[in-house]
Write a structure and sequence with these properties.
The protein is α+β, with helices and mostly antiparallel strands. The chain is about 25% helix and about 25% strand. Strand 21, helix 13 and strand 22 form a beta-alpha-beta unit. The longest helix has 28 residues. GO terms for molecular function: xanthine dehydrogenase activity.
């Protein structure tokens, strides 16, 4: 029997396979403004949907009067909680989120009512005419107000899987991780460092707002065109709300303008469908920027207490940590974020004695859930600050100290899991440190006048270099890849191969949400590599094919890419079988050689052409569907945290160089170099872009980005005027050093790449600011007043 293998390299006639920097098919369209985003959707005779939201963080709804809104000309429907036809709650894991407020609002901006009208302004005016009487209730805003004996219970009737294992009903989930004997290790420690740290609430700040179009169908169902991260999770939550079987809720992905975790939960999906089914007309909903800040979850703000102990020669003996995450009003993905924070709390270091507690609270603050880095970002900021403080106490170089304690392949995580793939932590640190430093005083020009763009404060011309001090800082982080803790993490791919106009053409169909990560490009690259064809069509993602899981957790290239590869290989075997049947009698190679698909031909491993692929196919259409899973994981023990909870780990290190105006408290990040192991760079240019993008979001958290929430639970800065994100003028040079150390357990040896750089960028920048100012800086984002003391 002939055997088959994937070609080590593509033949000269086939370009665009894995390992090449293939241009993105949507790249030019996005740059030129021609790409169709979900907010561009249009349907003849469509209505516009608008949401009325609560002005209070915690209040009882005493009465709702919609009569004036319904009487507004052009209004077709007004819906409140009492109009819901079926299920009234939804949620990714815990179904605790009301579709519309159910008598109590639990956060500022919670949806209370919906309006459909023939014009968006009409809908907004009508929504403003809905009269809601509220009785304000005490606001739960921090740990003390959440866990006091007399604290209001935000979800008194909890019956979820975590309810029996938490110390208070306002704790969503608690996860300890215990290893060794911390008390005994503390007694042996020559140096002990403790620290308290705080991470503000960061927004995903995707540029494309939440948007979608729901179209009622003749069969009583609905077609939803939507910008999301996870089509099938949306479907699973929407169908019960509509009272419809899942096959009558047909979802198609529309153009997505970024996500970063903020589209993993529902926003307006169910609302648009409810309005469409009520009115019998297509309904479009688009959030403006103000509403977008209320329409999706954010990164969990955190308070962290850490204690590290080390020997006099710089060996870590123990880590004790408590990580408190504010989950806001509803659970979202808080339980999984807690699991990540707890299991990754020590960082990429070898520590034999660990006592970690991570927990998330229910409060009346905005709901928090998935955001790039998913619990590991908050922990990384704290443990890397601790590593710098320990190095200083020990009189050691901060990089050398980290390298001395760095994990490598074969190391054991605090959870007991063995790291069974490359873990080049020390090498990543070596590479960023070995880079030449950028020149000092870059604002000085040959003409004598300063280039203020290179100074803190930039074009505001606040300084010409007076009081500007340089600092350099380092950090490294560890992030899991894929869904964890026993979740059935799989993806489905359908691949078809046929001859069109005499040329072999492959078609790839998955439900993967392309949110800007470049998955569409990579899927085509995999098909070219596995099937040896030049022409690949990637069909739009929809629910007519099985689930691809979420575009999150750095998992899509690994899991959906694995499914595409598996389906392609099934197609390839069918091609070889067809070739043997048609041409096997004419050449012994069909029976005895190792067969390859390269350049649109079937060849032997010796390079001999046996047949053109189009000749083999003729009028045949060969297809295959694959449901592919990575290695199983298991839940963490609820008492000890033991368990093989993660399928893969990724690592990145940063060196930050900053100039700080110590008089005004302004920071200019000059360079933010990154080294990262990606296993296999499937598309090197795209990988570089992911690393630079993640690095920039980490920079934003370090010095700019925070949703400000008052003690009464009100969001104070829901706009890009007051919520600042890095622009091109704020973003420094980000040189990237890519390592490719294959993980033998992963398709092509790849390692999820999108999240790891977000972790270490933040602590590296803050470490550099500390080096420049000498200030302890235990909170991010670092603001000017933290540096000036004003």
């Amino acid at each position: 029997m002939a055997t088959a293998r994937t070609p080590a390299g593509l033949a000269a006639g086939t370009h665009g396979g894995i390992g090449e920097s293939v241009p993105r098919p949507d790249g030019t369209l996005k740059v030129t403004g021609e790409f169709a985003y979900a907010s561009d959707l249009w349907h003849e005779d469509m209505l516009w949907g608008v949401t009325l939201r609560s002005p209070h963080a915690h209040a009882r709804i005493l009465s709702t009067d919609v009569s004036e809104a319904l009487a507004t000309p052009g209004v077709y429907a007004v819906l409140t909680h009492g109009d819901l036809p079926a299920a009234t709650r939804y949620g990714l894991e815990i179904q605790d989120t009301p579709v519309l407020a159910d008598g109590v609002v639990r956060y500022h901006g919670e949806p209370v009512a919906l309006v459909a009208a023939d014009h968006p302004e009409t809908a907004r005016r009508a929504a403003a005419r809905i009269r809601v009487a509220y009785e304000e209730l005490p606001v739960v805003h921090d740990e003390e107000s959440a866990t006091d004996p007399g604290a209001p219970l935000l979800h008194p009737a909890r019956d979820d899987a975590h309810a029996a294992h938490v110390p208070h009903p306002n704790v969503v989930h608690r996860q300890p991780v215990l290893r060794g004997d911390v008390a005994a290790a503390r007694a042996r420690a020559a140096v002990v460092v403790t620290g308290d740290y705080e991470v503000g609430m960061q927004d995903q700040a995707f540029l494309g707002p939440e948007s979608g179009l729901a179209v009622p169908a003749e069969d009583g169902g609905v077609d939803l065109y939507i910008a999301t991260q996870w089509l099938h999770a949306d479907l699973r939550q929407i169908a019960p709300v509509l009272g419809l079987p899942e096959d009558k809720v047909r979802m198609t992905l529309s153009g997505v303008g970024g996500a970063f975790g903020g589209r993993e939960d529902l926003s307006m999906q169910a609302h648009a469908c409810l309005l469409a089914l009520r009115t019998g007309k297509p309904v479009k909903m688009v959030y403006n920027r103000f509403e977008s800040f209320f329409g999706h979850v954010h990164r969990h703000p955190a308070r962290l207490h850490y204690e590290h102990g080390a020997t006099s020669d710089g060996r870590l003996l123990y880590v004790k940590a408590r990580i408190l995450l504010d989950g806001g009003a509803y659970a979202s993905s808080s339980p999984a974020v807690v699991g990540n924070a707890a299991s990754l709390a020590v960082g990429p270091y070898v520590v034999d004695n660990v006592d970690v507690e991570a927990l998330a609270l229910y409060t009346n603050n905005p709901p928090c859930g998935a955001m790039r880095g998913f619990g590991a970002v908050q922990a990384c900021f704290a443990y890397e600050a601790q590593m710098d403080r320990l190095a200083e106490r020990l009189g050691l170089d901060p990089v050398a100290f980290r390298q001395r304690n760095a994990m490598e392949q074969g190391a054991v995580m605090p959870t007991g899991q063995v790291v069974d793939a490359p873990a080049p932590v020390a090498e990543l640190l070596r590479r960023v440190k070995a880079r030449p430093l950028p020149p000092e005083r870059p604002w000085e020009t040959a003409g004598g006048g300063p280039d203020v763009r290179a100074l803190p404060g930039g074009l505001s011309n606040t300084t010409h270099g007076e009081g500007v001090v340089r600092g350099v800082g380092y950090a490294v982080g560890i992030k899991n890849v894929g869904f964890s803790e026993g979740f059935d993490d799989y993806s489905t791919a359908r691949v078809r191969l046929e001859a069109v106009a005499g040329q072999p053409v492959a078609t790839v169909h998955t439900a993967m949400a392309e949110v800007g990560q470049g998955g569409v490009t990579v899927h085509a690259q995999i098909a070219r590599t596995e099937l040896g064809v030049s022409h690949v069509v990637v069909r739009p993602a929809d629910t007519r094919v099985g689930s691809a899981g979420s575009t999150s957790a750095s998992r899509q290239t690994y899991v959906t890419g694995g499914a595409v590869r598996h389906a392609c290989r099934a197609v390839r075997e069918k091609v070889f079988a067809l070739g043997r049947a048609r041409f096997g009698a004419y050449h012994p190679g069909w029976a005895h050689a190792e067969l390859l698909l390269e350049g649109g031909k079937v060849t032997t491993d010796a390079g001999e052409v046996l047949a053109d692929l189009a000749e083999i196919l003729e009028d045949e259409v060969i297809d295959a569907e694959s449901e592919w899973r990575h290695r199983p994981t298991e839940p963490f023990d609820l008492r000890t945290g033991r368990g093989n909870g993660h399928v893969q780990y990724s690592f990145a290190a940063h060196r930050a160089v900053v100039d700080v105006d110590t008089e005004l408290g302004l920071v200019k990040v000059v360079e933010l170099a990154c080294a990262q192991d990606v296993g296999k760079a499937m598309n090197p240019l795209a990988v570089t872009g992911q690393i630079q993008g993640g690095t920039t979001q980490g920079l934003g958290l370090a010095v700019m980005e925070e949703i400000v929430v008052s003690a009464d639970g009100l969001v104070r800065n829901p706009s890009f005027t007051d919520y600042l994100i890095p622009t091109i003028l704020d973003t420094p040079a980000i040189p990237v050093d890519i390592l490719e150390l294959a993980d033998e357990h992963a398709p092509y040896g790849l390692r999820g790449a999108g999240e790891a750089p977000t972790l270490s960028a933040t602590p590296a920048v803050v470490a550099a600011i500390r080096a420049a100012t000498g200030l302890p800086l235990g909170r991010v984002p670092v603001r000017p007043e933290h540096l000036t003391g004003t």
